[in-house]
Design goal:
Length: about 1200
């Protein structure tokens, strides 16, 4: 091969010009394309590529031309190496090593991408030749490193890249070559590590010497070499044997700790140290890491951190160094947690207190990111069986909780300057939304740590809360009496501290009361009275004060006498208002605190119903009085308070009494709905009633139809509240005494009745009418009558649309400006229609679990459902159909009693399933057409096409979840807070070993179809619809839907194979062809490919005895040989004979491997891999191994081994003496 020939020079000039052309933005597209074509042709010609490559790689060329020249050489080595002659390989090797020796510029001026490409040439040759055919490589590299810092850096880059490819990334195409290289590196690791450490030591000496002589350029050379040494070591220490890291009395660790104090090297040293302390593996391999708990390493880390913390200027480099140091300390703590207790002699380190002090210092740092690292470690220590009991740790918790109490405050946003942490947040986060996501995650983690600490040291944690709450409330009382302060906003320091205080109080008090060291009733009473005495006039502060009272509410069990005062405080909050504000003009903060008060009533009603039971009449009277004042409570507030009463009412455990109260609650609904018979008579009347056919009215006070809508919303929500909250007693004895028993089953189970059922039943007719009217609004005739101002009223509200698209809902209003948000008429109508549809489906979905068998025994229930919820489905958009499937039908099916399957479920499915086949197939065909068109762009999330794409995927998956509930069963959807559907007959669901949903595990998650599944499949029309849907889903462009369908098909086909009379040969053939289609569509995804292969093999195995035509389908696949199919059938036959039980055996893998080979030609590939150029590596002869010494056979030796004496007369009764004598 010639590098300097005239032909090569001419071609090199043309290649250089082509490189310039491709990088010139002003060049026309066709010209650039022709240049690319020419460069690709040069790559494929070995003679031209090698000649031009070495010529263009000369250091006198421009860097971009040199880079392409090196790229040509790398291409030849990677893809053409096996085609080269020995002479050509030697030529390339010698010229490449010459490039390392003298082919680059000075290491401080040369571009990193040039140095990387030069080192890559050697690395690619190493992958193909070393060590078997290039045994002298390490010595050559060692000699090259002696030529100067530039060559040393290149040699180090060679070691770095080969370690990355072989050990870290493991991206070699040949596993045999990877094993050879790994073994060679391991065998030579002693010399390699010695080489790295000697370079580090020698260049540090020269670095210090040059610095002392003010020779900054030479010092920079040595500094750069040390940086690359540390970068290389960081790759090796992750996987090499631990003996090399701790050899020479831990010389490497000592060096790294020392270099933490050197500004130019501290970052690389810290990253190398981090890789060491992050090592995984066996416990005995990690044990030496505890040497880092010694005084010298600890002080080195602490001093390095202290030197950075004292700096007033924040530089990104120093901040990254601090974060790395934090990770070093936290990973070291994690290693301690792993070893402590598992090894007998690993206990608390001698300087554990010093370590915890360092952790406290890093925890105190203003950076949220650094705090997140330390918070995770504190959680590990506090939950550790042995570390948590350490007096050293427990003694430091008072300091820890003081820091954490400040860290849960919501400040430090990048856009603000209200905290020292803001400047660090700007380095870590691009926007406030990113910061919020991390902050709330870390705060939740911190509060969990606080709860755990409260169980460990309850006295300490309670004392802190006591002091903080007492001091803060007293301070607030004093300030309120002297200063007339403006109202707080969400970023006011006063509110932030109150918010943090309330979070900590709720976390600590509950856990302290669960411990063995409970505080006295007097201390709890004092804190409660202190909170009750503070008359907050700021709505935000009052809201956090309510949270504090909520946290302290548990003390009422100890001091019941204070209950009236607490309730009065809550009622004063839920009726709070600022001067001059009326019901329609309340600010957001006022509305929030009132809602908080109402929600708190529900919370304590659920948590402490036995306490509130004695005050039920008082609460009921107050709620009645407030409800009769039209200017006092909003509908939402009134509804929430009634929910709390219904929750308390459940604990009377008296059917008649509970039923009477529910009747009182529902009487207004009955009266209102009886007056609505005319609006409910037709879609046009209903549209007129709600104002959908009238022009929008502004302001809302003048909208008469708006009041009608409000009445409807109130009735629907109150009905939903009654259904969700009302329940029978969970205690069987109380239920029987209270009159809740409806019937007793033959299997010993008991059917209970819900006290709400007698009052819900009269409302069902109107309810189903409303559901039917809600669907009929989508009929074309109804849409034609919509007023022009409400044309977009049926659209999904923007907030819900953003949730589907995954777009953050950014509010345009300033959170610091407390003004009520005013909706325009279109938004009000949009929210009404959307809320009505969702709430009605929630009512129907909750009715089954809550009301129980009585609901399913409602006369004509399936007809009601088919003619209401399932009417006009072809007019509904996907976002309206989703709640019907997910919210209503899934729980309705799950909680249906078995005796109602035939009469209730089958008529509904007979209507639904055929329609869903047609709809889903039509929608996916439409989506496929869009994806194949040039207008579809996956990255554009603002288009209607993307929204429709997400909706159809969600609808498909949710429908498959419904089918899973029907066919397989599984955990029942918990849609109520009550006690279930009222049947207490043990476990009714099929428990699956692999969890829920259609994941990749597919096969083997349950044994058989559920009882409902068998009932459904026995119905031919439903079975055909379900099967068609699932088979088509295998070819739809949705991997999740494909996995779910594969999972369900496994059970269906297993059942159908036992009822083969239900299938024809064409149907079974279609099943197998659909599996092939799925493999072609989703074969690029490992999870899908594995489950589809299992399904295909299972289908063939189950049906080949009855349907021999399946064999022709396999033979019809491209590239399939008849002997492969015969071999598959032989394995299937062997498996059946040797394993009649069907359990997993060694034959399963062999069958699957053969089947994978048969279908390999049709398995789909990712478009990025479809035309990828394959890299082929030739396996070299195995490396020399010393043969294991062979033990001589007993009959081949003349030596007396004591075998005869074992049975000699001199032995004892057991023959032990003879064998002991022989062994000695």
């Amino acid at each position: 091969m010639e590098v300097g020939g005239q032909e090569v020079l001419e071609m090199a000039g043309m290649v250089a010009q082509a490189v310039h052309t491709t990088l010139d933005p002003s060049v026309p597209h066709n010209t650039r394309l022709s240049s690319y074509t020419m460069l690709e042709k040069v790559k494929e010609d070995v003679q031209q590529a090698v000649g031009c490559g070495f010529h263009l790689a000369h250091q006198d060329r421009e860097s971009m031309v040199r880079h392409f020249g090196l790229q040509l050489l790398e291409h030849v080595i990677k893809y053409k190496w096996n085609d080269l002659t020995v002479e050509q390989k030697v030529f390339i090797k010698e010229k490449s090593m010459q490039l390392v020796a003298e082919g680059t510029l000075d290491l401080l001026t040369e571009h990193l991408y040039i140095k990387d490409k030069v080192s890559r040439l050697v690395v690619e040759m190493m992958k193909r030749e070393w060590p078997q055919q290039w045994p002298g490589l390490l010595e050559e590299l060692h000699q090259l490193s002696k030529r100067g810092p530039t060559q040393t850096e290149l040699v180090l880059l060679v070691f770095l890249r080969i370690a990355e490819d072989v050990a870290t990334l493991q991206n070699l195409e040949s596993s045999q070559r990877r094993r050879d290289l790994y073994q060679a590196m391991t065998l030579n690791m002693d010399s390699m590590f010695g080489f790295f450490l000697s370079l580090l030591e020698d260049h540090y000496i020269h670095y210090q010497d040059r610095n002392s002589h003010q020779d900054t350029e030479a010092a920079a050379h040595h500094c750069r070499v040390m940086q690359v040494v540390l970068m290389t070591l960081a790759v090796y220490v992750e996987w090499v044997s631990v003996q090399y890291i701790f050899s020479q009395d831990g010389k490497l660790l000592q060096s790294l700790c020392f270099l933490l104090s050197q500004d130019a090297l501290k970052m690389e040293a810290a990253e190398c140290l981090l890789q060491i302390v992050s090592r995984k593996g066996k416990v005995e391999d990690r044990r030496p890491l505890l040497l880092l708990f010694a005084d010298a390493p600890m002080s080195a880390v602490f001093n390095a951190a202290s030197s950075q913390s004292t700096s007033t200027l924040i530089s990104e480099h120093n901040y990254r160094f601090l974060k790395t140091l934090t990770q070093v300390l936290t990973c070291l703590g994690s290693q301690l947690c792993t070893l402590w207790g598992k090894e007998a002699d690993v206990t608390e380190p001698p300087n554990f207190h010093t370590y915890l002090d360092a952790m406290l210092a890093f925890t105190r740092h203003p950076s949220l990111q650094m705090y997140s690292y330390t918070s995770a470690l504190w959680g590990q220590l506090l939950r550790h069986e042995h570390a948590s009991q350490s007096p050293t740790l427990q003694n430091i918790l008072p300091s820890w909780i003081m820091i954490v109490s400040r860290k849960v405050m919501k400040h430090g946003y990048p856009s603000k300057n209200d905290s020292e942490s803001c400047q660090y947040s700007r380095l870590d986060f691009d926007c406030d939304e990113e910061y919020s996501q991390v902050f709330y995650k870390v705060r939740a983690e911190s509060l969990e740590n606080v709860k755990v600490a409260s169980l460990l040291v309850p006295e300490t944690m309670y004392k802190f809360v006591d002091d903080w709450l007492t001091t803060h409330v007293q301070k607030a009382i004093n300030e309120s009496s002297t200063v007339d302060k403006p109202l707080c906003n969400l970023f006011s320091p006063a509110y932030l501290e109150w918010d943090a205080l309330s979070q900590v109080v709720e976390g600590v008090v509950r856990r302290v009361m669960q411990s063995n060291s409970q505080p006295t009733a007097e201390s709890g009473l004092r804190l409660l009275q202190l909170c009750l005495s503070y008359q907050a006039t700021d709505p935000l502060i009052l809201s956090t004060l309510l949270s504090c009272i909520s946290g302290l509410f548990i003390f009422i069990r100890l001091v019941p006498s204070i209950l009236p005062d607490v309730l009065n405080k809550i009622f004063s909050a839920l009726t709070f208002s600022l001067p001059g504000q009326m019901k329609d003009s309340r600010s957001r903060a006022v509305k929030n605190v009132r809602r908080h008060g109402c929600s708190l009533m529900v919370k304590i009603a659920k948590g402490y119903p036995d306490i509130l039971l004695q005050a039920f009449d008082f609460i009921n009277d107050v709620v009645d009085r407030l409800s009769h004042n039209p200017q006092e409570l909003s509908q939402m507030e009134k509804l929430t308070l009634q929910e709390s009463l219904l929750t308390i009412n459940n604990h009377f455990c008296n059917f008649d009494k509970q039923s009477a109260f529910i009747s009182k609650i529902l009487n207004p609904v009955s009266a209102i709905w009886l007056d609505m018979k005319q609006p409910f008579s037709s879609p046009q009347d209903f549209m007129s009633f709600v104002g959908l056919d009238k022009a929008p009215v502004e302001p809302s006070e003048n909208d008469v139809n708006g009041q009608n809508r409000a009445q409807l919303v109130y009735c629907v929500n109150l009905t939903l509240a009654v259904i969700k909250r009302c329940e029978y007693p969970k205690d069987a004895e109380k239920a029987e005494k209270g009159g809740f028993v409806l019937d007793r089953l033959d299997n010993g189970g008991t059917v209970y009745r819900n006290p709400a059922m007698p009052h819900i039943t009269p409302l069902l007719h109107q309810l189903f009418c409303l559901v039917r009217l809600n669907n009929s609004l989508w009929h074309p005739s109804a849409l034609a009558n919509v007023a022009p101002g409400y044309v977009k009223a049926h659209s999904l509200p923007e907030v819900e649309k953003n949730n589907i698209l995954g777009v953050t809902n950014i509010h345009a209003v300033d959170v610091c400006v407390d003004t009520p948000k005013v909706q325009n008429p279109l938004e009000r109508m949009q929210n009404f229609l959307s809320m009505m549809h969702d709430s009605l489906n929630h009512i129907l979905g909750n009715a089954g679990p809550s009301l129980g068998p009585q609901f399913y025994q409602t006369p004509n229930l399936p007809q009601y459902i088919v003619h209401s919820s399932l009417s006009g489905l072809h007019f509904l958009p996907d976002y309206r159909l989703r709640p019907i499937i997910r919210v209503f039908l899934k729980p309705f099916v799950q909680w249906c009693p078995p005796q109602c399957y035939q009469s209730i479920i089958l008529p509904i499915l007979h209507h639904l399933c055929p329609y869903m086949v047609e709809r889903l197939n039509e929608r996916w065909c439409h989506l496929k057409a869009l994806m194949e068109s040039s207008q579809y762009e996956e990255e554009n999330t603002d288009t209607q096409e993307m929204f429709d794409d997400l909706l159809i995927r969600m609808l498909t998956r949710e429908y498959f979840d419904l089918l899973k509930a029907i066919l397989v069963g599984g955990p029942k959807q918990d849609v109520t807070s009550g006690g279930g559907m009222g049947v207490d007959d043990g476990e009714m669901e099929v428990v699956m070993a692999g969890g829920g949903g259609g994941g990749g595990g597919g096969v083997g998650m349950a044994d058989n179809l559920s009882e409902l599944g068998q009932t459904v499949l026995a119905c031919d029309s439903i079975c055909q619809s379900v099967m068609t849907t699932l088979l088509k889903a295998l070819g739809w462009q949705d991997t999740s839907a494909c996995l779910k369908a594969t999972y369900l098909l496994h059970f269906m086909l297993k059942w159908l194979s036992q009822h083969s009379q239900l299938l024809s040969a064409e149907a079974v053939g279609q099943v197998l062809m659909s599996v092939f289609q799925g493999l072609h569509t989703h074969g690029q995804h490992d999870a899908n490919q594995s489950t589809l292969l299992t399904l295909g093999l299972s289908t063939y195995e189950l049906f080949i005895p009855a349907f021999p035509n399946l064999r022709q389908l396999l033979l019809g696949l491209p590239g399939v040989k008849e002997e492969d199919v015969a071999k598959l059938e032989e394995k299937i036959q062997q498996s059946t004979q040797n394993n009649p039980t069907g359990k997993t055996s060694k034959h399963d893998k062999a069958k699957k491997d053969i089947f994978r080979k048969i279908v390999s030609e049709i398995v789909g590939k990712n478009v990025g891999q479809a035309f990828k150029k394959e890299v082929h590596m030739t396996n070299l002869p195995p490396m020399f191994k010393n043969p294991r010494p062979k033990q001589p056979r007993v009959d081949d030796t003349d030596t007396d081994i004591g075998l005869c004496s074992l049975f000699g007369p001199e032995g004892d009764a057991n023959g032990h003496q003879g064998i002991l004598t022989g062994s000695h």
